[in-house]
Amino acid sequence: MIFDIQNTHTSLTEKLQHTIDTKTKPHGSLGKLEDLALQIGCIQNTTSPVISKPAIVVFAGDHGVVKNHPVSPYPQEVTAQMVLNFLQGGAAINVFSKLNAIDLTVVDCGVCFDFDPKANCIHVKITKGTEDYTKTSAMSLAQCSLAIEKGAQIIKDIYANGCNTIGFGEMGIGNTSSAALLMHAFTNVPIEKCTGKGTGLQDDGVLTKIEILKKAIQLHGYKTAPLELLASYGGFEIAMMVGAILQAAEQKMVLVIDGFIATSALLTAFKINDKVLAYCIFSHTSGEKGHKKMLDYLQVSPLLNLGLRLGEGTGAALAMPTLQAAVAFLNEMASFESAKVSESVHD
Fold this sequence. Notes:
- The longest helix has 20 residues, at 141-160.
- Helix 1 runs antiparallel to helix 2 (32-44), helix 6 crosses helix 11 and helix 11 (236-250) packs across helix 12.
- The protein is of the alpha/beta class.
- The chain contains 16 helices and 6 strands.
- It has helices spanning 13-21, 32-44, 65-68, 77-88, 92-99, 141-160, 175-187, 191-194, 203-220, 226-233, 236-250, 260-272, 291-298, 314-332, 336-339, 343-346, and strands at residues 55-61, 103-110, 122-123, 165-171, 254-257, 280-282.
- The N and C termini lie far apart (51 Å).
- The model has no long low-confidence stretch (mean pLDDT 96).
- It has one domain (55-328): 3-Layer(aba) Sandwich (Rossmann fold).
- Helix content is 50%, strand content 9%.
């Protein structure tokens, strides 16, 4: 698929910055909120931006490598169990989404389980999990393209319902391994520095995980085409998230990126079309080992640092009120002129 992503409206930067600077506060005193207000205004091409019907999509899929190798302390069945937990409203992402009035959508991209067709999720399963990438490609190029297409369609439907701000989360036992492989392939950071504890491996387990990932790297070599790398290592949930990210940027939405896995999807999307980055707000720095290095590679600054490494879109859900605060001060805070406050007092 070809995504028509436009540059954000940086021609509005000067006007937005003047509006921000003339609010009744010292210059720069609202810190990252000022940066957010400027970015969201440029995305929406207005000095009065709004966060409309914020949503988070959680993409879920299984990974074939988990069947044969101990890359996670949890069995593959936990992916399906956690998706059922999402659907029953019992997970952290349900709690945080409800708290912050965020619409939550769960997507079965390729979970190794047959969900009830009537379950309140989007059923777009490619297959029941990817292949073991230590033996072959995780998915075919055709499957990878189909996943991207389906991810894009999900965003088209959400956008058509009035949403202009979208967060991305995921669930998939073993997906920190895919994210580490994609990070290594795209950034050339050594795989040892990309690989962390995931859902709770001990130090010896991490060393074993690294050796397993080295086997995959040796098998697939050093490809450069983003889709080939995504097909080699990715999960269906990551591939679908790539399509969703690219489509959301085409729709000029505000994108809220969660942690390590979601950022690996963004990194892949960035390699496909680098214009996507200007639409992205990075919600937090994950406690997963490679995340900060990935953010540094992208030269972006996250909003929060809470030591989270849960996934599910939880960081995105916690960051959403900060976006609301940024547009609220821009729209509602008095200016020096309107409040008849002497600007020199606050300089």
